[in-house]
Amino acid sequence: MSALDDGEVGGAAVAPVWEVFGDLMSGLLGAFVLVLVGVLVVQMDLVASLESEIAKRRIEEQRRVALEKALAVPLAAGRITLHEGRIGISGSVLFPVNSDELRSEGRQLLKSLVPALQAYLGERREMLMVSGFTDDRPIREGNARYADNLELSAQRALTVTRALIDEGMPREQVFAAAFGPEQPVASNASEQGRSLNRRVEMAPVPRASPAKP
């Protein structure tokens, strides 16, 4: 009777150990499965994000190529430049020195750009920023129309903006900005460099998101 009792006691003592071990293994397996699922979800999100970024870049490249084709004639003639979506026009093409009076050939150039700009901006929620830049030389003495280069660049940007609107660009799709001698693209130590710095640039920028009530 005592031997049987001992066996029963021994069996009763061993059984809970295996039950605990089984519960532990089940818990570990469940945790492993959860971790594995989490890793797979993260990988799927990364793949989806990568595919989305590739698609965006492909669309941007297509837009850039389309813009280059639309501006092929003035680009080939050297009347404009195109770099990373920014259209640059030399100030001498648009204006006389120290003036914001638009040349007739400058107006014709702007008119030729409007269809391409409208198509380029129409594909996304963007606006066109028209920026005026000057060299670092002070405004010539006797010219009382402008206080400084910043004001001259502002008036030139406004003139180009108004000309684009007159030629069909929607008013709500274009605005002017002025930088004066800031952000030069060449050294102001030479006339060639100063000529490059006297310019107007047009670039697409995102529209502001509407304010939430």
UniProtKB/TrEMBL annotation:
* GO CC terms: membrane
Keywords attached to this entry:
Membrane, Transmembrane, Transmembrane helix
Pfam families attached to this UniProt entry = OmpA (PF00691)
CDD domains for the chain: OmpA_C-like
- Whether Transmembrane counts among this entry's keywords is yes
Q: Where is the composition biased (Polar residues)?
A: 185-195
**NCBIfam families to which the protein is assigned, alphabetical:** PRK09040.1
**Name used for this protein in its record:** OmpA family protein
Q: Which lineage ranks, top first, belong to the organism behind this chain? A: Bacteria, Pseudomonadati, Pseudomonadota, Betaproteobacteria, Burkholderiales
